[in-house]
Amino acid sequence: MIDIKNLTKQANNKKILRGVDLQVKKGETVAILGPNGAGKSTLLKVLATLIKPTSGIVRINGLDLKKNHIEIKKILGYLPHSSLLYDHYSPLENLVFFGNVYGVRDVEQRAMKLVKDVGLSFFLNEPVKNFSRGMIQRIAIARAIVHDPEVLLLDEPHTGLDQGAISILNNVILSMKEKGSTTLMVTHDFKQAAEICDRIIIVKNGKIVDDFKIKNRNLELVSEKYEMQMEGVS
Amino acid sequence: MNLFRTALLLAKKDLYSELKTKQILVTQIIFAGLVIVVFSFAFDPANNTTKAVIPGVIWVIIVFAGILGLNRSFISEQRNDTMQGLLAAPMEAASIYFGKFLANFSMILVVELVSIPFLFLLFDFKFFGSLPYFILVIFLGSFGFIAIGTFLAALAANSKSSEMLLPLLLFPITTPILIGVVQATKIILTNMEKLPSAIAWIQLVSAYDVIFFVVCFLLIDYVLEV
Lengths: 234, 226
Fold this sequence. Notes:
The complex is a heterodimer of chains A (234) and B (226).
Chain A: E1 2-11, E2 14-24, E3 29-33, H1 40-47, E4 55-60, E5 63-64, H2 69-74, E6 76-79, H3 91-101, H4 107-117, H5 133-144, E7 151-155, H6 163-178, E8 182-186, H7 190-196, E9 199-204, E10 207-213, H8 219-230
Parallel strand pairs in A: 3-8, 3-9, 6-7, 7-8
Antiparallel strand pairs in A: 1-2, 1-4, 4-5, 9-10
Helix pairs in contact in A: 3-4, 5-6
Chain B: H1 2-21, H2 24-42, H3 54-75, H4 82-88, H5 93-122, H6 131-156, H7 162-190, H8 195-223
């Protein structure tokens, strides 16, 4: 599903990604762990077609990222740190706008269903600017999946969420997984990574330094492997 | 077709936002009103020479009210990083440019529709020129100014002092358009005998509009990268 070969990204003479090689199969849920500045978010931005790589090959669903970026964007759902929502628009208006951009059919019904799924149907027509951080994140999740993406790219999605919102987000990821979607999630939350992911990647200094599968929500294995890689890193 | 569809969606979104917030259009119209009132105090409407000022006043309104709108057009997409949302969506960068252009152009047309009749009224200006030519000049001048301005607004939006940078970039590039349309407007409003000269100015502005619109369309991809 995702095939990355020797991916590099350089900005202002600083190498952010130094030859990343990664293959992700369809339906996998992968957590990307690593310290701040390791290049995790940059990797996600390259996949989301927001940043052009300096060199390397990226293929998603067999399509080359450089040549078929519009086709690739249609199957990607991207949720970064920011909500990507228009403040003065209501959840419904935001979702209808993005749904239309992605060419979603029956977009209003789809938007209403998603707002209901994230537990905010009472606030359907309230402007997003009046919402709390957790509520905004719930709508942001709905925005990212409004077009039923085949690949979900999540950048620290659990940050600042209450328990209710965390469980809604996890349910969304798991239900997308059941549908066969592939998820890449950058996170610092080992517990959530162990809970919903079946593969962990550790990134350090722009390179993948560890890549392993986990079973039975083995949080200890994740912590142990991470600490082993981070020894000597302040 | 996708390019036009998404551009129209974006333009619709911007205009609907404006309808809700009333931030840009109201500011532009207030600015236009102030300019007209100040000029009407400075120049005696009863004096015939005052009529010569009108073409200049029209373009002062369009240029400065236009800049007010252009400045906001891409900066508004920085809040919550909504520009990233647009760039991650299946739309070309040219589509974003075209959508923003359509929204800015529609807003400046509304400003013109309100302010120019008000200007003529306050200056007691009897229109003896050619109305279709006058509308054509206003349309072509606004088109070129907004086309270049939208591109430069995208370029300046990433700068910390974008509100200062935009006029600095915009005025030198749009000077040929502004000279052309002010000259053409003056001839059409005050001296229709020189119409061939006005047509020559219109042709120059049209050529400039087309060239820069196409150039902006082609280059916007490099400007909008995150």
